[in-house]
Structures are given as structure tokens and as C-alpha cells.
Write a structure and sequence with these properties.
386 residues; 6-stranded mixed β-sheet; binds alpha-D-galactopyranose; 4-stranded antiparallel β-sheet; alpha+beta
């Protein structure tokens, strides 16, 4: 990102220099998909591309939002923040600010210019990136940086759940807010305990592959999966006192499998239980440098998301299948909510170029349009640059 160029744009729009600059990353999830809302373990990491904000303070109560990514300027009054469909992307920062106000945190008027290099709708958490970014701005500028980072992450999730109306789990905001250079985060979404793991990828790299299928209209499917998991949990709770699906081991689940009459509901629960178990193994493999086994777990995860959880689709499946045909690739899976968006592949670093050529060609032949590929470092969580 060219911050000097961004500064010029800021001055053109607001007629004066910006005072502060912030950055917030996107994220990928290595493994542990669709289980954050089932009390499971997830294993995401923050990317080194994301969302930037230039900010200057105002003497009045006005909030001005502009973005280089969208042709929409939004002006709101701090005393009167409400969801407004026409405000589009600005509802994310507005939601965070509103929730912080409700919690008694200090806010003031600002001019804000946002600029992101996370592809929109690619499932790399551009919205969580923007939410946590807003939380850190309000914390650093008006609350002396005293608000705990996990509290900010919870506020960001609450904004998405209650203000924007998307019923997401906590994984994305957590990865964005607590990411660390070259580390993945093993997060227990039930207790919010977490620990970092070194990304010891040896002579392999993670390649992010974008299906370029827009993830429009997926919120209803996402909410449907959540409801199905709740139904499965109720069925299990008739037999066993468990707080959430991921509290069950695969063996405990197998012993209860017969109580389901609806195959679909059983499959959703089975995915959650086995995926949680895979995360534990994957964390272990990464620590020990057992990358072949780590890659195998990624493939198992994708198969489960395809066959049991049914959130992949032809684009993600084709991308993953073509990736696995390449002899430099030892594992691949969808990442994020699914139904389009991105997949990740574990690829021998010196084979990346032939890998992307081959996968691009084969995917384009099958799907009719090109995928995109990104290589990203594993970066730090949201922070102030200036
Ligand atoms: C989206 C949600 C997350 C998580 C993933 C699936 O990214 O925002 O909370 O549920 O899907 O793992």
C-alpha cells in the first residue's frame, strides 16, 4: 500500500493532512472450519495484507467515512448512529463505534479514509478487518489504549452480529485482532483461551487460491448451518449432558450416532466433532514439522466440508482437486465460510510458479473463468502505524 498516495487522497477529500495511520490484516484459517460457533478449536493466522485507515480529529460530533475501494461517502452524527442500508460498508465501523458508545467508551468526531487490499467477498475477512480496525482507532485515540484486545474483538463480533445482522462466530475478529508475525493462533472458541504456534513450513508455503466466485447470498446458508448444529446439539443433549458439539470426542459421537433420524443433521454434527479433533492433530503436526500429515488433515477437512457439511460447491472443489494433482502440493482445503471465496494449498516453495500455472489452466477450463493466487506473509494483528 502506498501510504503517501493515500495521504494525497486524504488531503484532496478533507482539505488537510491526516494525523494518524492504522493497519488491520485479513486472515486465513488453516483448519477448524465452521466450528467456532460450536465451541470448537480453530487455527487461523493474520495476513500481511489488509485494511488501512488515515484519520484526523474533528472539533464537532461528525463522523466522515470515505474509502478508495467504494465510491460512497458517508457522513453521520456521533449522537445518532443507526444501521442504514444505504451506508453500505460504513455500517461496519458505525456498528463498532455505536457498541463502544453503549459500553461507555469515549468517542469523538473524525475524518476517516479507508483503503484495503483484501479482495472483497473472497472470504479473507475484509469486514472483520475493518471492524477491529475501528475498535483500535477508538481505543488508541480516545480511550488511552486501555481497552483489552480480546474485549475489542468481542465488540467487533457484536457489531457484526447485532448492528450489521450477520450471525458470525468469533474466529475472524480474533485472528485479525491477535495475529502475530509467523504464528498461527490456536483458539478455543468456548473459553477464548489461545496459544500461538510457529508456522514452521520448512520448504513449503501457503498459497491462497481465490475461486473468484462472489460469496453473495451466503448469509442465509451460513445461518442455516448454525441452526442445524443447534438442532443436532439438542438431540445429543437428550442423551448426554454436553455444552456444545465440540465437547464430544469422535468416539463419544460414534456411540451416539444411532440416535439421529435425520442423516443431514447427523452429518453436520459429525463434521463439527471430527473437525475439532483434526485441529488438535494439526496443531501437533505443525509443532513437530510433520507437514505431510498436516497436509493430509487439510484434505480430510475439505472432504468433510464438502460431503458432511456441504459448504464447498463446484468452484472450491475444482480448485482443491486441481491443486492436489500437482506433485508440489501436499494438502489443500477451502478456508472461511465457503460457498465460493478462497482455498489454501500447502505447496513446495520452489514449485509455486508451475503450481499456479497448472491450477489456473485446469480451473479455467472447468469453470470458465480464472482463479487468482496470492502469497502472503503471516503478519501482526491490528496496530497503529503512525
Ligand atoms: C465465517 C465466519 C466465522 C467462521 C467461518 C467458518 O468466516 O465469520 O465466524 O464461522 O465462517 O469457519
Amino acid at each position: 500500500m502506498d501510504i503517501n498516495k493515500l495521504e494525497e487522497i486524504f488531503q484532496d477529500i478533507y482539505g488537510a493532512k491526516s494525523e494518524f495511520c492504522f493497519f488491520s490484516p485479513g486472515r486465513i484459517n488453516l483448519i477448524g472450519e465452521h466450528i467456532d460457533y460450536n465451541g470448537g478449536l480453530v487455527f487461523p493466522c493474520a495476513l500481511d495484507f489488509g485494511t488501512y485507515a488515515l484519520v484526523s480529529l474533528r472539533d464537532d460530533n461528525k463522523l466522515n467515512f470515505t474509502s478508495t475501494n467504494f465510491d460512497l461517502k458517508v457522513c453521520n452524527d456521533l449522537d445518532n448512529l443507526a444501521y442504514n442500508k444505504e451506508d453500505d460498508w460504513a455500517n461496519y465501523p458505525k456498528g463498532v463505534i455505536k457498541i463502544m458508545q453503549d459500553k461507555g467508551y469515549k468517542t469523538k468526531g473524525m475524518n476517516i479514509l479507508i483503503s484495503g487490499n483484501i479482495p472483497n467477498g473472497a472470504g479473507l475477512s475484509s469486514s472483520a478487518s475493518l471492524e477491529v480496525l475501528t475498535g483500535v482507532i477508538i481505543n488508541n485515540l480516545f480511550n488511552e489504549g486501555k481497552i483489552d484486545r480480546v474485549e475489542l474483538v468481542k465488540i467487533a463480533q457484536k457489531a457484526e452480529n447485532e448492528f450489521v445482522g450477520v450471525n458470525c462466530g468469533i474466529m475472524d475478529q480474533f485472528a485479525v485482532g491477535l495475529g502475530k508475525t509467523n504464528k498461527a493462533i490456536l483458539l478455543d472458541c468456548n473459553s477464548l483461551n489461545y496459544k500461538y504456534a510457529d508456522m514452521k513450513l520448512l520448504d513449503y508455503s501457503i498459497v491462497i487460491m481465490n475461486t473468484n466466485k462472489r460469496r453473495a447470498l451466503n448469509e442465509s446458508k451460513y445461518n442455516e448451518r448454525r441452526a442445524e448444529c443447534e438442532e443436532a446439539l439438542k438431540i445429543i443433549q437428550k442423551e448426554k449432558n454436553v455444552q456444545n458439539l465440540c465437547k464430544l470426542t469422535p468416539e463419544e459421537f460414534d456411540a451416539l450416532e444411532h440416535i439421529f433420524t435425520d442423516e443431514k443433521i447427523k452429518n453436520r454434527a459429525k463434521h463439527a466433532v471430527y473437525e475439532n479433533d483434526r485441529v488438535i492433530s494439526a496443531f501437533d503436526c505443525l509443532n513437530k514439522g510433520e507437514l505431510e500429515e498436516f497436509g493430509r488433515l487439510l484434505m480430510e477437512s475439505h472432504d468433510s466440508l464438502k460431503n458432511l457439511y456441504e459448504v464447498t460447491g463446484i468452484e472450491l472443489d475444482s480448485l482443491v482437486e486441481e491443486a492436489l494433482k500437482n506433485d508440489g502440493c501436499i494438502g489443500a482445503r477451502m478456508t472461511g465460510a465457503g460457498f465460493g471465496g478462497c482455498a489454501i494449498a500447502l505447496v513446495k516453495t520452489d514449485k509455486i510458479s508451475s503450481f499456479t500455472d497448472e491450477v489456473r489452466k485446469a480451473y479455467t477450463e472447468r469453470i470458465g473463468y480464472k482463479p487468482s493466487f496470492y502469497s502472503s506473509g503471516i503478519g501482526n494483528g491490528t496496530h497503529q502505524i503512525r
